[in-house]
User: Fold these one by one.
Assistant:
Number 1:
Amino acid sequence: MEQQYRLRFAPSPTGPLHIGGARSALFNYLLAKKNGGTFIVRMEDTDLERSSKESEENIKDSLRWLGMDWDEGIDVGGDYGPYRQMERLDIYNAAVRRLLEEGKAYYCFCSEEELAREKEEQQARGEVPKYGGKCRAIPLAEAEKRVAAGEKAVIRFRVPEGETVVVDDLVRGKVSFDTDGIGDFIIVKSDGIPVYNFAVVLDDHTMGITHVIRGEEHLSNTPRQLVLYDALGYEKPKFAHISLILGRDNEGKLTKMSKRHGSTSVVAYKEQGYLPEAIDNFLALLGWAPGGEEELFTLDELEQAFSLEHVSKSPAVFDLEKLKWINGMYIRGASGERLLEYGLPFLKKAGLVSAEPTADEMIWAMTVIDVLKTHISCFAELPELIEKYRAAVVYDDDVLASLKDCKEDALAVLRAMKEKLERNPKVTVDSYKKMLKEISKETGIKGRNLYHSLRVAKTGEEQGPDLDKLSVIIGRDLMLERLKKFIKMFQRMD
Ligand code: GLU
């Protein structure tokens, strides 16, 4: 029978979804989709102090925004729930019980001070610190009596001695670990809550997970999980640890991606006006190489193209310029409707249109976005760019000189335009085009002499975006003001 693919994303809801987490989610999502499998989202919420509902909501919203809808898990349900670890304590307790009874786990009563001292001594001797095994020999019945009497205890897993554990990683190949370097690790804390390395094994096993794709920072956890799989007699999933994401600092040095290198949360990119398809595309390229020249892939295309064979084990570098380029490409290709959906909030926020835009404002917004879409890499740049065209114009001598040989025509055109604008309180692309046509007809001036003077007077530049649309950005009042000033100045020039 063909293998069924079941992959999961298991974040801890202790902060917003960040770029690294989103990339892990994406790779799991893509491998599941590519193979007609199931993508599961569950929550590792055992860190009671740091977990919050708000973080969970943020993670879910970000995943949905990125288009990574899950087939099974929190909110949507499924046959393997519950999907939050704090709701699965019974499952963990039953497994702990079994390990205790089989002598594979034991209660440990060592105090924190004792453990700290032990660690210090080991370090002083130049040894890698690990639990010394003081409570290993306490019989279960005796330990249970002490616990029942109220003594505080953790539960440790008895790590087999002198063995080699091999992580057969789908990205990194075989990575070996010596069990003697691990030390009996805690699987249940004194408050009865299981730790990640234990709970995750139970979750992955009971949910029938076939592949675990996660960040390289978890590679050192995997041998602990593997010895647990063996102790519990469970079949292991396949593992793939994907490289760290590095950021380049000002001196060009590469270090683990952090806030210093740019925003780290997905929602921050949403707020800056990035499109989700651009983020998905960018995330996929953080470690995965398509193997050809093409770099732009929609989520659907990624679902077809993705494979773990093309995931690199060298670190991925977070390159904001590349993200901007990708986003710019998607903006250019987006429909007018989508552009408006994304651009309008930025125009509202900058006070360029009202909170409840009028029909005229909507037309204005559409025109503005359409003309500027080739000039922005994210929508947050939109108001800035509009302001640039609306800022005071400085007329350069060289630019003015370009009008000298057609001064008379230029003045005729500018005066005619001024008059028309005075009579027209509203300018749209169409009405502007109509005015131009009329001016040409009335003055007999055509071509460069018609357009060039208007461009210079209105923008101070010899080149730039389409003037019909630019006029809408600048707006009727400002245009009129500029024309009046320019005519006054220009007619005095020789
Ligand atoms: N909660 C872990 C994390 O957010 C999950 C690790 C795993 O996928 O096993 O990093």
Number 2:
Amino acid sequence: MNLKLLAACAAGALALAAPGLAAAHAGPTAAEAKAFVEKAEADLAAIDGYTTRTAWVRATYIIPETLWLDAKAQGEQTELATKYAMEAAHYDGVAVDPVTRRKLMLLKQFLTLPAPDRPGAAAELSELSGKLNATYSTYKFDFKGKPITLNDAEDVLRTSRDPADLKAAWEGWHTVSPQMRGDYARLVALSNEGAKGLGYADVGALWRSNYDMSPAEFEAEVDRLWKQVEPFYKNLHCYVRGKLNEKYGDAVQPKTGPIRADLLGNMWAQEWGNIYDVVEPTGVKPRSYDLQQLLVAKGYDPIRMTRTADGFYQSLGFAPMPDTYYTQSMITRPRDREVVCHASAWDIDGKDDLRVKMCMKVTAEDFQVIHHEMGHNIYQRAYKDQPYLFRGSANGGFHEAIGDFAGLSAETPTYLNQIGLLDKVPGEDEDIPFLLDMALDKIAFLPFGLMVDKFRWDVFNGQTTPEAYNKDWWALRLKYQGLMPPGPRPADAFDAGAKYHVAASVSYERYFMARIYQFQFHRAACRQIGWKGPLHRCSVYGQKAMGEKFNAMMAMGQSRPWPEALEAFTGERRTDASAVADYFRPLDAWLTRQNKGQQCGW
Ligand code: X8Z
Ligand code: ZN
């Protein structure tokens, strides 16, 4: 499976021939480059069949032995991929055909965390990765006298409206990461050394190179996109802060300044839809339904939620998920063993053994997550006939955007009515509540999606030292999200490490990009089906011709630079947040009216 989707990495063993060296005088030839790429691709595909399976077993059954086995396998893969990445650089100046050129580039960018090219380094790096992930995934802390998991703590954040409980659950979970700091700093040092060996300034620069542009251009690109959406976020922040102040009073949430991070319904305050009840608009008709209550009332369970997502994709013309999806996946948290609960989508064999791994509950949030995860599976299946090195998304943002794009339709009242979940489709007078609910997830996420890797870019380039991890993390949380912790942080805190993608080294800017692409896809799809109403009411359910065109884009995998894929479906070649603005326009105007007279910002 696509290594960039699998959290960490690996290291390995093969002694490699160096085809470039034989022809050292004249420099390597195009034929040698092609032969090298073919061998590298075949070897990496072969080891993938092994590492994907060890990773699956480790993630669904955490015991010392599976950690050991997976670290060994990932170590071998990292070592192999690092050697091939270094060797790919020998062909930088050789005139080769475009396919070989792209594959050489992808070989250099293959690893999320490259290892230094010396004995033992890849093994050490993969052990550190596995250990950090396992610490995060198995941690429990004491809450009201009993040990609880992250899942339990997330339930508290989602449902409790008692600020003391919220603070205790938030602070309790954040005790997971002080113990990770030393290992994390070592992982940064090792992988940076590996990245430098490949010719990148550091790991952050390697990650920013994954977008068919230079690292500096990508940085400018995310800043440009953030500027497009920032005023909207500030409007939402202002409105939500006012409501929290009404609910909890000045002592808990003052009227001005940052928002307390534990009051927003989510452990990382990344999506705020869980506190809809607290921020519900007054003076407009209340919402006539709540997705979570509908799911419960109609007796949905996790399998039925999965079948529902499957049904949505089938309506677009995609084949059903295979039977093994339902027998081999891990859909709910097992009672009797430790697992990685953080949701992910798997392609075990590059053929038809697709799976999801999550700890699903019957919530509106997980209804969204299963559409998200299955979107990954749909993409994996669409590009499975590409050569191994092209089996990936146009860029990381595309992979994360597919299922969310489906979700934009699957969360419309029209669709919920079509599948029998909702009895009556509300009228236009419920547009503001609906859009507010969507914005609490989609818009609230944007600055978080942006800042997680702004933090890591600074860690990798050395500007943020281990001693400053927590200070710098909160400086960015304040700057972009306008948040503060619920109380003073202990001297040993490493709050970034309490986020899965940091502990597991999954790059994060992909999610920021995805929040924009999904609206571009949605706008283009709604145009294709001839939708004339407001974008937020458009559903593409049942639109097979649109589905076919979408599949054609996905089938390209990463064989071409991403603007070509974007153009194939949307006719647009640039990432463009105007689709986000188009979707939320009525809400933005409404929020501006609500915030009149308020001192917005922080
Ligand atoms: O990690 C995920 C997915 C798996 S790729 C569940 N997401 C990000 C997160 O949870 O932080 C989806 C939205 C953002
Ligand atoms: Zn995802």
